[in-house]
Amino acid sequence: MATPDHLFNVRNNFYLGAYQASISAAEVANLSPDDVVERDTFVNRCHIAQGHGAFVISDIDANAPTPLQSVKLLAIYLSSPDDKESAISSLKEWLSDPAIGNNATLRLIAGIIFLHEQDFNEALKYTNAGGTMELHALNVQIFIKMHRSDYAERQLRLMQQIDEDHTLTQLANAWIDLAVGGSKIQEAYLIFQDLSERYQSTSLLLNGKAVCCMHMGNFDEAETLLVEALNKDARDPETLANLVVCCLHLGKPSSKSFSQLKLLHPNHALVKRVSAAEENFDRALQSFA
């Protein structure tokens, strides 16, 4: 008889972007020592996702197990631009340590950090071997960023063989459908809708549906979904960025959303692209002066 999965709701809510629900579900008694570490790892990743990286950095001490130390490193990397280089240096040092270098959580955090750095080959060095559903799902994201949906589809097939109904398998399927485009967009929308109905509607799922709507030219519906997502989490960078794009297509003012995005997430890709465009425009103007 299979043992009950005490941490299913902790994990599943995290994957769906329901971070507070994940934290609430973590109040589970009689966990094994390994389960306690896994639970604490997810709870701290939830805190990071909520923008509470400073809490994670102060809460995890130097004697914590490798998975928790890895999460602390992610918090340092994301919270403090000045500490990024030292965080990456520590990460590489740990990954080269035979005693801990193959730890699945450490490899996952390495993949997340190098994906942020747009260093896809370095990310794959640590994630490509897989080993967990999260590592396979991260591989899918990396391959999509590399415009290699063929490799992403191979990872998806591996995930489907392990557990076709797993939330990460469903999400990975939707991400690939979005990347492929065309008639697949509707299928992606239905996956996000199904997950919303099966579990709960989260900012992550609402953004997924909104992006599908924008691809299909339904910008009014996309705006409605994004406003709903904003009501759930007013600080979410993807909601703000998608709302900027949506408003531009609708001919509506987007400056408020963009100002919020720039203030809260100055390193977001959209902020960087707009800043680069403004600098190029200014340079072009100066050349005519």
From TrEMBL:
Asked whether the UniProt record includes Cytoplasm among its keywords, one would answer yes
Picking any one GO molecular function of the record gives:
structural molecule activity
- Give a Gene Ontology cellular component term annotated to this protein: COPI vesicle coat
* Bilayer topology term: Peripheral membrane protein
Gene Ontology biological-process annotations: endoplasmic reticulum to Golgi vesicle-mediated transport; intra-Golgi vesicle-mediated transport; protein transport; retrograde vesicle-mediated transport, Golgi to endoplasmic reticulum
Where would you find this protein in the cell?
Cytoplasmic vesicle, COPI-coated vesicle membrane; Golgi apparatus membrane
Per the annotation, which location comes first and is thus the protein's main one? Answer: membrane
Q: Which Pfam families match?
A: Coatomer_E
Keyword entries, A-Z: Cytoplasm, Cytoplasmic vesicle, ER-Golgi transport, Golgi apparatus, Membrane, Protein transport, Transport
Among InterPro entries, the record links this protein to: Coatomer_esu, TPR-like_helical_dom_sf
Q: What does this protein do?
A: The coatomer is a cytosolic protein complex that binds to dilysine motifs and reversibly associates with Golgi non-clathrin-coated vesicles, which further mediate biosynthetic protein transport from the ER, via the Golgi up to the trans Golgi network. The coatomer complex is required for budding from Golgi membranes, and is essential for the retrograde Golgi-to-ER transport of dilysine-tagged proteins.
Protein family = Belongs to the COPE family.
Assembly and binders: Oligomeric complex that consists of at least the alpha, beta, beta', gamma, delta, epsilon and zeta subunits.
Name under which the protein is recorded: Coatomer subunit epsilon
Native source species: Lupinus albus
